[in-house]
Specification:
The protein has 68 residues and is an alpha+beta fold. It is built from two helices and four strands, in the order βββααβ. The chain has one domain (18-67). It starts with 6 loop residues before the first strand and ends with a strand.
């Protein structure tokens, strides 16, 4: 299991939103409902396995929590 690097998108209000980008192919945006920490998502098999499977044929971008 390779956890993707965490990147941050800056907002106009000075906040940063964490995201991961993984996989290959057409884009797929994932906004999780239960876990909003992108690093913790990869630690749980219940969430990691579907992401790994989808990443075989789509580029997944998953957003997480906001930071100041």
């Amino acid at each position: 299991m390779t956890i993707p690097a965490t990147h941050y998108a800056k907002t106009g209000g000075g906040l940063r939103i964490a995201y991961h980008k993984s996989g290959v192919g057409p884009p797929c945006l994932i906004v999780p409902q239960l876990i909003s920490n992108v690093e913790k998502t990869w630690e749980h098999e219940l969430f990691r396995r579907p992401l790994e499977r989808i990443g075989k044929f789509m580029t997944c971008v998953m957003f997480g929590h906001r930071q100041r």
